[in-house]
Each structure stands twice: as structure tokens, then as C-alpha cells.
């Protein structure tokens, strides 16, 4: 009797979801193996580093998720603070000017948001809100981002009443984002690029585009990846320093720090929930020790994919709890946005392929509701109910996972948004 072996099992078809998922996993494993081999041979470090920085953009999906998250944070802050905007930053906040001057920010930032004219302040406030919306939607991102950074720094440095660690993180991240490709995915810029120019550009704009086309391909790639490295270094620096400072406190060493954090009167949006959680002594101690351990070891944990997944899940859960239980949601979301940068593009594609598979296996009436509005209207016009077996062309190709460096991430694409 013939014994079946693992090698004799049929290989999933290249176009099937199982085949694509296996391709993504094998490619990720190969990348991890290449990294480990490079670390064992220091002589190859310069060549590997140069190749990684200049061959193609990395973390393009993660930067898109970062853009959306930070944009939503800014919109949330502006909307929730709208009623008290004059007291927090405007004409009613002049009593904090002595503290503001101690920070010695350039006068340019203070002049953006007037403290003597409420109308001018409101106008600048609305301009900032509009920039945040455009940034979140990914429309003309290359143009919007520097103005958004300028106005956001101007607002956040105009007062000391509404500041926390999240403000510093967002300012630094927005500065690094000036050099990154934030609109490759999930943006109106991406939609506009796929459709092509709607009309012939003006002569001046055409000249600028022709000039930018002469820039070598590796330049925008290098700028993008440098922004990624700096952002990743920034968050690792925050985590490691936070762990070191925690270890200097006796409460963190004995595991009681989480208890005292949950009992601070100024950081209890849900007092009943905090009071319930502090009764779980074992959970409080574990939360304290895990926070120190995962923050301190974060730079090491991200080197290996399984440990990186565990670290990101734990760290993200920690920030969600900080936002929910302590009310520091701008800080929590800003840190989660930076954590996205450690998720590879291949992982994002694998997740979207899984979502496509779930959608395609859903009942017809559910699939019809999950389909975009323009597809539903086309199906209705054709006389279909949306529950048939024939899916639209773009739906049939949604789950296709292009190998790294292919598709819309191809090296020939110019990253600059013109």
C-alpha cells in the first residue's frame, strides 16, 4: 500500500486564496531568513541597508493607515474642543501666555492663531479643520501635509492647557511624514492616479511635472524609507525610555503602578469600570509587569515575526486600555498609528485577501449590501439582484495579492504626488 507523503499533496492553485496566502507567508518567512543571515555577516550590512533603503518603498499601507488615524485624531480634537476653543487656545487663554513664552517657540506659530481677534482665530481654526479633513481623505497629500503641520504646531503651542505626550508624537510624526508617500493606498489621490488626468494640466504645472520626472527614482524611495526608519526609531525610543523610567519607580517594580494610574481622579472617564478593574489584583500586577517588559524589549521583539505579532498585539491592547480607562485617546491613537509601521505590506494584502474571501463566501443579500454603491447600481441597471455567481470584474480581482514590488508598488512608479 502506498503511503501518502506531504510532498505528494496537491499544491493550491496560484490564483486561489489558499495559494496567495501561502505565497505571502513564504515570502515573509524568506524575508525574515534573509534578515537573520545578514545580521550574522556584518560585512554585508552596508549593502543590505542601501538596497533596503533605495529599491522600493516599504510600509506603504501602514503609512496610509497612519495618515487616516492621525487625521481622525486631529478632527476629533478640533470637534470635541470647538465649544471651548477660545478658552483653550484663543482670546480667553491669554492668562497662560507666561508659561507659553517659557517654551520659546518661534513667533510665527503664535501669529497663526490670534489671541486678540476672535474672528481671525476662528478662521484659522476652520482652515486647520479643513486641512485635517483633506489629509484624512488623502487629497493632494503632498501639498496639504506641510500646511497641516504648520497649523497644528501653531495651535498646540498656543497654550499649555490641552497638551500631553500625544502632541509631541504627532508633531514629530507629521514632520517625518513630509518625506513619506502617505497616499499610495486608501486615498483620493490613489483614485485620481488610477483614473488618470481629467484634463490637460496648465503649462506651468506640466513644466513642474517634467522637472520632477527627471529626479532619479531612488530619491523619493530613499526619502520615504528614511521617514519610516526615523518614525520607527522614534517609537522604539519612546518605549525603551518609558520602560527605563518605569523601572526607576518602586510602584512599577512591585506591580502596583497600574492600580494608582486607574485611581487618578483626573483620568477616570469611567469611574465604575476603573473601580471594578482595580479589584483584580493579579490582573493589575500582570499589567504593570507586562507594560515594562514589552516596552523595554520592543526593539528585540520586532526582529522575529512571531514575537513581533505578540508585541504589537500587547502594545496595541495597552494603548487601547490607556485611551479607554484614562481618557488619553489622542495619545493612544497616535501611538497605535506609529505601531502600524511595523506591519508589512504583505500582511496588509493578506488581511485584505481574507476580507475578500469572507465577502465572497457570504450569502447573496449580505454580499449585495457589502458591495460599493456604484456596483449595486450597475447590477440593478443590468437587472440582477446581486446574488448571482458572477461577480463584477473588480470584485473578482480584489483578493489578488501582487508579489512585493509588483502591481501598483512597481519600482517604475514615481512616488511624488504631483
From TrEMBL:
Residues 378-392 have a biased composition (Low complexity). InterPro entries: HTTM-like, HTTM_dom, Sporulation_signal_mat. It is a multi-pass membrane protein. Residues 1-20, 366-418 are annotated as: Disordered. The chain crosses the membrane at residues 64-83, 118-137, 218-240, 276-302, 309-331. One of its GO terms (cellular component) is endomembrane system. It comes from the Bacteria. PANTHER family: HTTM DOMAIN-CONTAINING PROTEIN, SPORULATION-DELAYING PROTEIN SDPB. This is HTTM-like domain-containing protein. It comes from Clavibacter michiganensis.
Amino acid at each position: 500500500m502506498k503511503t501518502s507523503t506531504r510532498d505528494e499533496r496537491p499544491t493550491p492553485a496560484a490564483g486561489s486564496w489558499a495559494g496567495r496566502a501561502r505565497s505571502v507567508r513564504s515570502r515573509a518567512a524568506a524575508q525574515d531568513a534573509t534578515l537573520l543571515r545578514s545580521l550574522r555577516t556584518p560585512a554585508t550590512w552596508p549593502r543590505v541597508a542601501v538596497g533596503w533603503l533605495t529599491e522600493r518603498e516599504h510600509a506603504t499601507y501602514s503609512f496610509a493607515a497612519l495618515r487616516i488615524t492621525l487625521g481622525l485624531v486631529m478632527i476629533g480634537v478640533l470637534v470635541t474642543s470647538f465649544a471651548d476653543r477660545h478658552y483653550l487656545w484663543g482670546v480667553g487663554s491669554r492668562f497662560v501666555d507666561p508659561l507659553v513664552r517659557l517654551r520659546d517657540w518661534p513667533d510665527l506659530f503664535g501669529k497663526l492663531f490670534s489671541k486678540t481677534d476672535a474672528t481671525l482665530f476662528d478662521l484659522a481654526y476652520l482652515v486647520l479643520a479643513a486641512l485635517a479633513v483633506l489629509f484624512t481623505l488623502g487629497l493632494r497629500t503632498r501639498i496639504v501635509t506641510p500646511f497641516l503641520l504648520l497649523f497644528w504646531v501653531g495651535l498646540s503651542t498656543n497654550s499649555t492647557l490641552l497638551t500631553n505626550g500625544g502632541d509631541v508624537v504627532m508633531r514629530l510624526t507629521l514632520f517625518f511624514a513630509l518625506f513619506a508617500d502617505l497616499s499610495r493606498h486608501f486615498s483620493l489621490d490613489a483614485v485620481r492616479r488610477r483614473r488618470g488626468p481629467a484634463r490637460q494640466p496648465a503649462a506651468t504645472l506640466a513644466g513642474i511635472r517634467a522637472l520632477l520626472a527627471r529626479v532619479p527614482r531612488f530619491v523619493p524611495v530613499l526619502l520615504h524609507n528614511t521617514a519610516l526608519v526615523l518614525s520607527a526609531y522614534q517609537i522604539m525610543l519612546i518605549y525603551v525610555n518609558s520602560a527605563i523610567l518605569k523601572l526607576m519607580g518602586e510602584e512599577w517594580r512591585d506591580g502596583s503602578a497600574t492600580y494608582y494610574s486607574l485611581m487618578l481622579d483626573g483620568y477616570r472617564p469611567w469611574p465604575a469600570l476603573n473601580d471594578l478593574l482595580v479589584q483584580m489584583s493579579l490582573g493589575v500586577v500582570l499589567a504593570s509587569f507586562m507594560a515594562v517588559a514589552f516596552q523595554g524589549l520592543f526593539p528585540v521583539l520586532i526582529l522575529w515575526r512571531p514575537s513581533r505579532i505578540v508585541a504589537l498585539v500587547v502594545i496595541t491592547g495597552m494603548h487601547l486600555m490607556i485611551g479607554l480607562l484614562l481618557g488619553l485617546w489622542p495619545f493612544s491613537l497616535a501611538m497605535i498609528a506609529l505601531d502600524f509601521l511595523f506591519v508589512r505590506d504583505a500582511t496588509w494584502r493578506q488581511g485584505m485577501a481574507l476580507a475578500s474571501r469572507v465577502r465572497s463566501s457570504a450569502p447573496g443579500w449580505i454580499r449585495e449590501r457589502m458591495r460599493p454603491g456604484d456596483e449595486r447600481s450597475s447590477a440593478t441597471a443590468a437587472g440582477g439582484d446581486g446574488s448571482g455567481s458572477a461577480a463584477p470584474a473588480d470584485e473578482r480581482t480584489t483578493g489578488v495579492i501582487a508579489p512585493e514590488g509588483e502591481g501598483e508598488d512597481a519600482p517604475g512608479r514615481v512616488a511624488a504626488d504631483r
